[in-house]
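hey all, quick one before standup. I had two proteins in the batch that finished overnight and I want to keep them in one place so we stop losing track of which output belongs to which input. First protein below, input sequence then structure tokens straight from the run.
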Amino acid sequence: MHVTALAAIRGETQNAPCALTDEEVVDRVRGGDLALFEVLMRRHNQRLFRAVRSILRVDSDVEDVLQDAYLAAYRNLAQFDRRAAFSTWLTRIAINRALDHRRRRARLVLLDPLEPEIAPPDDGQRRARVTED
């Protein structure tokens, strides 16, 4: 069945969000139809998940980074200048957030080997000997 026939059966019109290009959806979101941002998220979620997952490997980290990337894209939508496709712009945001997350995680891991070298806390015995004299 033809795509427009399916759209007609579903009750969708030419102005329906699924019929709009990314750039048209961006324009409508910028114009105040904020709920349409969900259309962009749904369209690109699988691609972004795969891109971020290839960097982070842990699904819970991927989900956190994706949420952060979507928020950043939403907040900075006015900066999308169409020099690249919206999908490229959004993917770059997600990848940058994933790389930042990985760098922060690596710094935390590097601190772990230092823990055994830190002197254990004084248990009070040394202080007790000093005061007995």
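OK second protein, same deal, sequence then tokens:
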Amino acid sequence: TELKVSEVAVGCSGYWGNKNFSEKKAESIILTAFEHGVNFLDTGHNYCNYNAEPRLGKTIKKILLDHDRSKIILSSKAGTITPPSTLVSKRNKIVKDFSADHIEKSCLESIQNLNCEYLDIFQLHGITESQVSPQLIERLSTMREKGLFRYLGVNTHSESDIRYIAMYPEIFDMVLIDYNLLQLDREPVIKELDNAGVGVVAGTVLAQG
């Protein structure tokens, strides 16, 4: 793609987006990163119980007061839903919805949350080959034409789905995968993606600590 991203990105999720973590400190992390040349911020619609996007959006709004929208690359995701906790279980059960209507609705909400006009990268969060329907691909094409996002990606940890993405570079522009010192076995599939012309972003680079 024509996107020029910083070598290091900030993943706006995890404890950063947790309401228990200071809003002021969270903002300071993003502003400091941006000041040091980091232009690539990655988050997800359902991250941190849906708190990450609105939190990031507040900082984005401040950045855009003094900088053009093109100076920052924003990536978010759709498809994974975390329902509210119930009295029966304190742990949320993760469910997915890759229907065309839900994906478009989620994308529109992400744009609103992030105060960003459009997403540079829109990722299908954990989608599998069997969930990629013709209706979804058609809707995504229409959404791109409308200017809701510039490039389409997938966030997955499944090697079979990563290889599937490599087969369709005309549809998928990038993929966010887990790659770190404990997962050097990812290198052959990274090479496969590179040969296909699909961009690769390395996530979980610290192997979750």
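Flagging for whoever picks this up: The beta strands are 10-11, 40-42, 73-78, 80-81, 95-96, 119-125, 149-155, 174-178, 199-203. The radius of gyration is 17 Å.
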